[in-house]
Amino acid sequence: xxxxxxxxxxxxxxxxxxxxxxxxxxxxxxxxxxxxxxxxxxxxxxxxxxxxxxxxxxxxxxxxxxxxxxxxxxxxxxxxxxxxxxxxxxxxxxxxxxxxxxxxxxxxxxxxxxxxxxxxxxxxxxxxxxxxxxxxxxxxxxxxxxxxxxxxxxxxxxxxxxxxxxxxxxxxxxxxxxxxxxxxxxxxxxxxxxxxxxxxxxxxxxxxxxxxxxxxxxxxxxxxxxxxxxxxxxxxxxxxxxxxxxxxxxxxxxx
Length: 255
Hints:
With about 260 residues, this protein is an alpha/beta fold. It has one domain: Rossmann fold (3-Layer(aba) Sandwich). The chain has 7 helices and 9 strands. It has helices at about 10-25, 35-45, 60-75, 100-130, 150-170, 200-205, 215-230; strands at about 5, 25-30, 50-55, 80, 130-135, 185-190, 235-240, 240-245, 250-255. Strands 1, 2, 3, 4, 5, 6, 7, 8 and 9 form a 9-stranded mixed beta sheet that branches. The two termini are about 25 Å apart.
């Protein structure tokens, strides 16, 4: 039975993906900051598959160590999905009016914490020949007024993803994994899911009706397409039920 760790799985895209993987008999480790919503998700999924729910903030090192312990208990990891994220202060405001500490907090949650999880869990994913999937945004490659901190954090995450893929292609390995080169079966994906009808989208557009955006469940088939068919590592956009390479970047790194 394959194992997945999905951050930010108490709602939105993370919860929708967890539901689909559970239906496919994946064993799940899920996290989220909202304890009650996470517990509700776990209760829904438990009759279908094995679920470990760990409430907490991915920016908290102690919480990440608890997630690592859960992975070790199950002996490995086939899929890491870095989905947890934050918009930063809302209502959104111009970058010039954003405090340095506020920018640092968004970067910590959206880029530093995913990198910390990748670095710690890479040997497990490497052993399984698995997939690291980082949920990105079009704001990583476009410059939308008031979206500066969020866009900068997702651009950072995209760059980290692409560099990991390039190092994989070059056959490099990290110092802590000396003697264990990346297996070329690993995939690193940055995925732009597009606008969705989520609480985060509503927070970004207070007072607007966001019900015309796609449901997170409508995006999941594209993520499953990546996980199942394993195209080259790179940046992809969710389009209908499949993913397509993003033409705004060097989307794919052969591996």
